[in-house]
Amino acid sequence: MNDIDAWVWWLVGAAALGIPLVVTAMPEFGMLAAGAVAAAVAAGFGVGAVAQVLVFIVVSVALIAVVRPIANRHGKQSPRLATGIDALKGKQAVVLERVDGSGGRIKLAGEVWSARALDTDRAYDVGQEVDVVDIEGATAIVI
């Protein structure tokens, strides 16, 4: 046991911290593993055990303190590019069959959709342009 250098133990620790990173997908384990790699580098340069532990702690805490808030901020941002039905909301469509409170057909983004008017008292005639305000299932709600 005494024949194995300290830097090897730090790399074993880094690998051991990589396992829960992969299993749990918690990035904090990766930051701790990076701290262990930094301590292994310090041990490779012949730094004492206390300094190695301090390098591990400083690098790990610095990564957690700096990287984690940035990652949380990016995770909470909504996507800038609307896709799916969210991309269709607010688009204009052309009425193909009369649309009223009970139904009808429109051409939306090159496709034929079933549609109904948001205001049940309102009707839209063939050829008229309407705005899509919502999508419920396969039916566009228009005004």
Could you characterize the architecture of this molecule?
By secondary structure, the protein is α+β, with helices and mostly antiparallel strands. It folds into 2 domains: 6-76, no CATH class; 85-142, OB fold (Dihydrolipoamide Acetyltransferase, E2P) (Beta Barrel). The protein is 48% helix and 24% strand. The chain has helices at residues 6-24, 27-44, 49-76, 85-88, and strands at 92-100, 103-108, 111-117, 129-136, 139-142. It has a 5-stranded mixed barrel with strand order 1-2-3-5-4. The longest helix has 28 residues, at 49-76. It is rod-shaped. Keywords: Membrane, Transmembrane, Transmembrane helix.
Write the layout of secondary structure elements.
Blueprint: H1 6-24, H2 27-44, H3 49-76, H4 85-88, E1 92-100, E2 103-108, E3 111-117, E4 129-136, E5 139-142
Parallel strand pairs: 3-5
Antiparallel strand pairs: 1-2, 1-4, 2-3, 4-5
Helix pairs in contact: 1-2, 2-3
Q: Can you describe this structure in just a few lines?
A:
This protein is an alpha+beta fold and 143 residues long. It folds into two domains: 6-76, no CATH class; 85-142, Nucleic acid-binding proteins (OB fold (Dihydrolipoamide Acetyltransferase, E2P)). It has helices at 6-24, 27-44, 49-76, 85-88, and strands at 92-100, 103-108, 111-117, 129-136, 139-142.
